[in-house]
Amino acid sequence: MGTKIKKLLKKIQLKRTSVLLIVFVLMAFVLVRQLFQLQIIQGENYISAFQSRTTKTRVLKSTRGNIYDRNNQLIASNVLSYSLTFEDNGSYDSTREKNLTLNGVAYKVLKILSENGDSLSDSFHIKVDANGNYVFDVQEGFTLKRFKADVYGHALIDDLTDDEAAATAEEMVDYLSGSKGFSIVLYGDSAYTADELEKYGLPQELTKQEILDIAIMRYELNTNSFQKYMAVTIATNVSESTVAAVMENQNELQGIEVLEDSVRKYVDDESMGPLLGYTGRASSDELEQLRKENSNYSNDAIIGKAGIEQYMELDLQGTDGQETVTVDNLGKVLKIDDNTTVEPVAGNDVYMSVDADWQSAVYQILKQRVAGILVNKIAAVKTYDYKGENDASHIVVPIYDVYNALISNSVIDISKFSDENASDTEKNLYARFQQKQQEVFDTITNRLTTDNPPAFKDESEEVQEYLSYICNTVLRDTLGVIQKDSVDTSDATYQAWANDQSISLKDYLNYAASQNWIDISAISPKGEYLDSAEIYQALTAYITDYLKTDAGFSKLLYKYLIMNDQISGQEVCLVLYEQGILSKDDSSYESLASGAMSAYDFMINKISNLEIEPAQLALAPCSASAVITDVKTGKVLACVSYPGYDNNRLSNDMDTDYYAKLALDQSSPFFNKATQQTTAPGSTLKLLSTVTGMMEGIIDDDTYIECTGEFDLVTPSIWCWNRQGHGALEVRTAIEQSCNYFFNMVGFQAGKNSNGDFSENLSLEKLQKYAAEFGLDQKTGIEIPEASPHVSDSKAVPSYIGQGNHLFTTSQLARYATALATSGTVYDLSLLNKVTDSQGKTLKEYGSSVENTMSDVPDNVWADIHDGMRRVVETHEQFNGLGVTLSGKTGTAEIDVYHPNHGLFIGYTTDSDSQPEYALAVRITNGYSSGNACLTANDILKYIYNLADEDTILTGYASSDTSNTSND
Hints:
Helix content: 40-55%
Structural class: alpha+beta
Number of helices: 36
Shape: globular
Number of strands: 27
């Protein structure tokens, strides 16, 4: 049997090649079958499993409402932009893998942004300073405490531990970047390996800025940790090149997405900045307040931060929509569920009462007028001697003050003097500065350490300024080492320092330390120094080190280099070209450099051409304001504060350098001169005194008062501006001539009690009564921040001529002028006309709001006031040939002999039917005289009534005509 089988096998035996072929066929069959199973039958399942599909809800950003002026001119709108968002949509096997992944993605995004000229958008309060140190960008206070609480994960500031509350910027970054935070940088056994760093696209070493930026991105992402698939915005308004780079590298940028967004765009005009404000990322406190009104605000919401943007926030803010999307593990959208999409709703549009063209023109007029006054007052002298001077109109601005102002107000950036690329002029200035710095530090060290240093009063003026800066600016105001609240100002030693100046700074600081007026923890948080001697020793060691990097003290050194002629005006002016503030293409450069043009002539030329503005110098004068109202409605048609600012640079991605410059600018552009600055009203208040006198029966139409030039019924005597006296005047002529004697007598008689004795309180009560009827004791209702007014409560008789301690804003004087024009209609002022939805449907109208009508004041009183005001204009040559009927009142508010007076004018125009039309108030802070305010008002009215060619009004140059007249 076995033999038969063997014979059979031999018969069917195949060649080896045939066997091999059969094996390959069988294997191919198995392979094809398996591929069919994988790709056709199970393919969809495998693809689905690989992609790890996730369904999530995605926010559809709404757009903010537009803002229009009264002529429907668009003044705030939105333009299309792109934003980058970051979300944590990954799955990780460990926390270490999660941190490496997210940190790697963050680093790659940072590189893309940097390479394309873009940056992160954040409101984080830690920055890297010029010395490469982490520093806070806000001072000690609520904002910093709230920031620390947020970073350390506390709902309340009070929950901060002592160490957290005292944490430095460096310590906070260490916390965020270390193992307790986001593990950006680890050390020791926990340190990342080279292979790990390479795998996740991280460098072997990160810069301090990169560590901070990654920490910021991770911190922002962490704010949404309770909603894993909720993205946070990390960069806004990015360039198209950044968008392209992100899209090209999408596979490496898990969780990064490009979204269409919008950015705020304002009319390109600095006059609108203080009025409109700007937008920015909401802080945690702002969100908390806004969510009480609207719970839909997201963590990265952009809100109004100032001005009308802030006041109308709830109207302007749109409502975000949402859509449900299916994404893969890389965040790529695979499907959008149209059935669940909720479209975003645009914010409402706001229509203001302001005329944007008027606003812009008035701003230009104010700038020209302030520049004209400044140019007229600059003198080719080093200093001005105030001794023996009792007339502030004689004050001049020394040209050396102008040179110093270029450095003091940071027109010139002194930090660039030490740069490697600094010009030869800058390097020379810096070399002289270093020598001066060492000399001054030697002097300071001597005064703080030597036995029996000179008393403060025996020091030179220069050394006194250095020592005052150390004591007051640094130790008291900046560092809080000297605690204001702890100092006993009645103490004899304090009096000897502050008033008599009979002791040295060393003596004062030693005594302050012994009295526990000094808080050493401000410079030594660990409290190493306990007794007063050790405290003083610590202070002296700290002071010099601190002053080396203190910009304010460095500017003080440059001031005395200029004053001592160690730095010339020519050198300072040349730096304006070296730093690109002025263009070397202009004809003045060669003349200045060669000496053909003096530095004095150069500065006069540049200020006259407005290439250097008064606000940049922040000398007196450097600011002004004007408010115009419609007397029929109380609507504000222009509300102008000079200087203003470019709100386009503050919205969206805030230009932090620009913001810091504005915040430190000595002309205070963030401080609205029209609504927040208060000064005495000067003689403009004599119209209130007229109402008071006539309503209280002190004077009537037939009352004549003899002006002798000196009102001597009070002590000290009060002089009329006409020291020779006006003679006998009735009320209309008294208004026309702005007679101090006449209105002093009204105030004096108002204080007579039933016994015929004078009572300060009685006189003041009567004035305050009618001030309240004019609404002068309360804010105007204007929708942007406004300072509270103050009706005088001291020095009764001077108060009747606008002195005393009256304080009013320009907006409050404009409402007062409006009430005078309308014979007593006191409106709540408003900047708003209406609100519509995005389709134009009116949702709310802002009509006139009348606060009071002063119906108790009879017509003859108003007739006297109106005629007197009309005479004022007719007798002031500044209004000659104006071309429109104007009635008004001038005012010159005196300060002291060291500061120029404020110039004021209030008035109103009437139409062809003799009906009041517009009211206005103008104030030039430190404008020397009311005559300059009159010239400004004249220009404004010529513009709004088209009484002259626009080019002759808005010249773009400093005004050539100024006035020293103050007949009030």
